[in-house]
Amino acid sequence: MSGIFEIIYVVAVVLLMFGAAIFIHEFGHFWVALKRGLKVEEFAIGFGPVVWSKEKDGILYSIRAIPAGGFVKLPQMLTSEAIEGKADDEDTEEGGGEKEPEEPLPPVSPLSKILVAFAGPFMNVVFALVIAIGLWIVGIPKVVDHPVVGYVGQQSKEYQLGVRPGHRIKTVNGEKVETWQDVNLAVLDSADTGKKTVSVVFEENGKELEPKDLPADTWNGEIRHIRLEHRAKLIIQEVQTDSVFASVGFEPGDVVQSVNGQTLYSHYQMVDLMMAADPAEKDVVVERGRGDDDKPGHKVTLKYTAPESAGVLVDSVPKPEHGTWDLMLSKVGKDLDELEDTPAMKAGMKKGDRILEANGHRITSSRQLVDIIRNYNEGAMPFVIQRDGVSMDLNGTPQDGRLGVALDDGVGIVFKPEVTVYSKEYAHPTPWQQFSDVFNKIAITFKALASGSESGVGAKHLSGPVGIFGMLAIQVKQSPLLALSFLVLLNLNLAILNLLPVPVLDGGHIVMSVIEWIRKRPVSMKIQEYATTAFALLLITFFVYVTIADVKRVPLLHEFFQRDTEVEQVESGK
Fold this sequence. Notes:
By secondary structure, the chain is α+β, with helices and mostly antiparallel strands. 37% of the residues lie in helices and 23% in strands. It has 15 helices and 24 strands. It has helices at residues 3-35, 81-84, 110-138, 157-160, 180-189, 267-275, 343-347, 366-374, 431-450, 452-455, 465-478, 480-498, 506-519, 525-552, 554-562, and strands at 42-56, 59-73, 140-143, 149-151, 168-172, 175-176, 197-204, 207-208, 212-215, 229-230, 236-239, 255-259, 262-263, 281-288, 298-305, 312-316, 354-358, 361-362, 381-387, 390-396, 406-408, 413-415, 420-427, 565-568. The strands form seven sheets. Strands 16, 17, 18, 19, 20 and 21 form a six-stranded antiparallel sheet that branches. Strands 5, 6, 7, 8 and 9 form a five-stranded antiparallel sheet that branches. Strand 17 (354-358) and strand 18 form a beta hairpin. The protein starts with a helix and ends in a 6-residue tail after the last strand.
């Protein structure tokens, strides 16, 4: 299945799965409302204009244009009218006569209101449990993403602490990790400790090393993380004929394995080793002729001589107000209008310059240069650059570990995009394990939001319908079982979020009903309407905000959506 048929398939399955979660939630409200004797006017999936509708037994069933929610219209309860608007009253019946006034509906007990409001989230939990039981029996594809370090620059703090490419992360702050996602979550979970470091235990050749306190912060406005690259398979996709590495003899399909006997774990490591001055002569070992079935090819040793001067290109020297870049100056909360020239602009750097040296170090890669600048705090830094074939000295003073340039290694090698690798063995987590994993992620998310200044997590990092649709699409493309696993997370998230004590959400209805139960009389309808309308507007504003953030992430989602997958036999712990 490919092309347009694959897109149709993915979209259809995503809409079906997302719609199922919404349907189950609204069906819970609907079913309990009928059982408790409440009048139901409409059962709707989605918001906005009606796409399809049918009336049966006095209830209007409808599908709306925006598949981002739904509602059950209950005239005896304050429902979604704050968002949807009240239905247009018909002043006249067919034939021109005035409509007979309807008898007022009897009041609903607080218990009934609580049960109806609680039924939606409860049904999401039940639905998640049913899916989790099915996945426990059938199994889930197990992602192979061992936390093996791919790159550590020699000028980085991590290298000075003894971290090397090929080291495998075993624990973060005492918590065992098996994937890079585990590492990222563990680092994020430590944001509220106030520490700028995390304790990491590595393994080298099967031997556990002493714990190391690695820097963990929100560099460049990013989410709190440790600055270690994960291991990558270096499969060459394209070699530019006029590039620095054109003379090596690389061919598309080659898997680059080592340089002068050092095993390669990332392309930055490869560039650093190949551009190093000592020794100038390099033996580069590649695997050539690997088949589509991943059968091993034959090893070829290629020769390369490092140039007298290496360096990285200055791709641009943007102004602060033009946005973010690798070494930008601006901080969260700082007025960009107050920023004039960046350190790079003050130093006189221009697009097309090649940075040959920084603080006396021969520059071999952009990542190495970033490490040098990030760890420099001694005032003006001396640079040697090459412009129009002429070398010259410049001085620039990094601010907050940033220089203000966009960099390009310019080696002319394009590597094949990373693939998602799955083991042939399926995982069979129990429903409790699946629920526990989801609750842990939700707890970390809430904690990270509460400590935003330390974690770097804000509302822009949350996903709305666009982001959810995108993630579901990625999972569906890779495996429907992974999509079902994501659906467990989605349903539990829907349940928890809807139970928050916020007017317009189910939790708000429950709080209002509990207050009514205690006071022996309902909360003023005007107060309920004002509160619901106010929070509905806030909810819509938030909805628009996260949707815009989702749209900005579309290129990233597209990259993941296009990512290939592999299934391979992987030994446990390898």
